[in-house]
Specification:
Elements (H helix, E strand, L loop, with lengths): L39 H13 L4 H17 L7 E4 L4 H12 L4 E7 L5 H14 L3 E5 L2 H14 L6 H17 L4 E3 L4 H4 L11 H11 L12 H11 L2 E3 L9 H12 L12 H15 L4 H10 L5 H8 L9 H9 L3 H9 L12 H6 L1 H9 L5 H7 L2
Helix pairs in contact: 3-4, 3-10, 5-8, 12-13
Length: about 400
């Protein structure tokens, strides 16, 4: 099933160009190299570190100002911010930090009904320990399966897009419901990097068009973020998106150890593997059909910050990902895809998000507006970088 174009695990023997600082190679979308062989994505991380003062006093000062503002604006409310939780490392640790910083967060969880037992247990262990309230939205499981199945039948790579966008819109819905003006996101560009431009893409129009063409059920419970809903939320709710881990020193490994000691939180074995649809996407669907492996995002980041040598990182990246036993059987049964149909899907010529209707051109035309909104934290900076370029 795995069709990854694995290279010689010894980086000194490879015949393709690899960044002299991380492990991104010439096959990464929109990559370029400077005279020293360093890729543009390493420079992107350096620029973000400078801008946000990551791990330095500049970053601490900036973050403290933001935290003071969150406390002031939420002084008379039950909650002063939202933290989206999945049971994974970053969001769990951010909840811990939010409480430590004296904030009063509401935890919000989008249950796509594909959670692992470990993820569910992690959420409840942590929230019980920290005494934080949880707002969970459970989408109809048959409807969610129908949407995911539609993306697989469409032959595009973004089978996880409905989960990511549904979660993003749920955060905005919860913010409106409880009159909360700040959403804290547990992303770390130093630990995970920024997904290369053009590697994947999704928006509400993309999801709606794919589902209308390949789905069998009506979309009733899925929180679809259309352009109008997106812009309405930006203009009327004025919710600001903050990524505290962009300002501070952060170690995913240290965070996992701390969470385990704090409340018995457990690691689930890999980035995004706390959810079974995500595990299928990362370990079976993407490598098997698209010869693509998102592990190089995280591994490159680990090499940049010195947690892993470039040689070891390249070797890991060029070893096939470990697949959870029986995962494929579970997915095929749940999505009602036969063995023959699945083989046909995986061998069929892949399509791109560019083959279906999206808002991409509209976002590009409104680049100036979204630049301003990103500066005001009303849309995530990564949204502007990835969607408006």
């Amino acid at each position: 099933m795995n069709k990854l174009d694995l290279q010689d695990p010894d980086i000194n023997n490879v015949q393709i160009k690899v960044c002299s600082r991380c492990i991104y190679d010439e096959r990464v979308s929109n990559i370029s190299f400077d005279a020293n062989g360093i890729c543009n994505y390493c420079h992107q991380v350096d620029k973000l570190k400078e801008e946000y003062g990551t791990g330095k006093s500049k970053g601490t000062l900036q973050l403290n100002k933001i935290l003071d503002k969150i406390k002031l604006e939420g002084a008379n409310k039950k909650y002063d911010c939202i933290v989206g939780v999945s049971g994974g490392t970053d969001s769990s640790y951010l909840l811990y930090l939010a409480k430590k910083w004296g904030l009063r967060p509401l935890a919000v969880h989008f249950d796509n009904t594909w959670n692992t037992a470990i993820a569910t247990m992690n959420i409840h262990k942590l929230l019980n320990h920290l005494e934080i309230d949880l707002y969970t939205y459970v989408v109809d499981n048959k409807e969610m399966d129908d949407i995911i199945r539609s993306f697989i039948l469409a032959g595009v790579a973004e089978s996880e897009a409905p989960n990511d966008l549904g979660f993003a819109y749920l955060l905005r819905i919860a913010a409106r419901k409880y009159s909360i003006k700040y959403i804290l996101e547990g992303h770390s560009f130093t630990e995970e990097g920024i997904t290369p431009l053009g590697r994947n893409y999704f928006d509400g129009k993309y999801i709606k068009s794919i589902h209308q063409k390949f789905g069998k059920r009506k979309m009733k419970t899925y929180p679809l973020m259309t352009f109008t809903r997106f812009l309405t939320s930006i203009i009327f709710d004025q919710v600001k998106f903050i990524r505290p881990l962009w300002y501070i020193s952060y170690s995913k490994k240290d965070a996992q150890e701390h969470l385990n000691q704090l409340c018995g939180w457990e690691y689930y074995g890999g980035h995004h593997l706390e959810n079974r649809s995500a595990a299928f996407f990362h370990t079976i669907y993407l490598p098997g059909k698209f010869n693509s492996d998102f592990r190089n995002n995280t591994i490159s980041s680990q090499v940049r910050i010195g947690n892993c040598s470039r040689e070891d990182g390249w070797s890991i990246y060029n070893t096939a990902p470990i697949v959870e036993p029986d995962l494929l059987t579970y997915v095929k049964k749940r999505l009602e895809i036969s063995d023959i149909e699945f083989e046909h899907i995986m061998n069929k010529q892949p399509l791109s998000w560019k083959d279906y209707p999206t808002y991409k051109k509209r976002f590009e035309r409104l680049k100036g507006l979204f630049y301003l909104l990103a500066k005001l934290n009303l849309v995530p900076k990564s949204f502007y970088i990835k969607y408006c370029s």
